[in-house]
Amino acid sequence: MEIGGGLPHSCPIQFEGAIDRNMKTNAPKPSASIALALALALALAGTGPGHAQACLDKRQIQEAVSSGQIMSLDAVLAQAGVDPSAEILNVDVCDEGGRLVYVIGVLSSDGQAQNLTLGAQ
Asked: What are the boundaries of each domain within the chain?
């Protein structure tokens, strides 16, 4: 069977046999897809509202440090004994279970990157 052979810029397509419209596919049934999506959503949501993590923006961090609500980044790093030569990659202050914490990406002098979570108060 040849399809599209009469058009000037088309390529003929050859089929060895008839197309079986009742062929089964490997696609999951809709109910399986819904169950998988629900399981994934529940896993990402955690087990309760205590696992939600809201982070402050830069202005809020500056205000919190200025008002004494949280310690400065330098004070937190010194208190934790972080090597002063370590390169700071990123800094967030987030609410973790009702307390503010610094979440800090650090690159050590030996090239190892790690995330630190340190109390901010």
From this structure: 2-119
